[in-house]
Amino acid sequence: MIRKTSIVVGIAAVHFIAAKLIVALTMEMGMFAAGSSRATGYLGDILVWITRVLFFPVITLSLYSRKWFPGDWIYVPVVVNSLLWGITIYGLICFLKRFRSR
Hints:
The longest helix has 34 residues, at 2-35. The protein is mainly α. The protein has one domain (2-101). Helix 1 runs antiparallel to helix 2 and helix 1 crosses helix 3. The protein is built from 3 helices and no strands.
């Protein structure tokens, strides 16, 4: 049980870090594009798409009022989202292992 929980938390931690990095990278790309006459192009579109995938089912933090999650509490929905991803990915791995063993 502890092993399963640590695997899920590990997957969730990797997802959380990836989500934080992709948001920072996407925002940096947007700021670069806003400061120049060039559009972000395909790379910007890909980064936005990856951000949407990583934040599914939360979709976007703009759905949450800052009054609900003041300051760093805004990371609560992100952590919950990462845990959902961790549980889903681990469940899928277990399902595929069980399916292959038959």
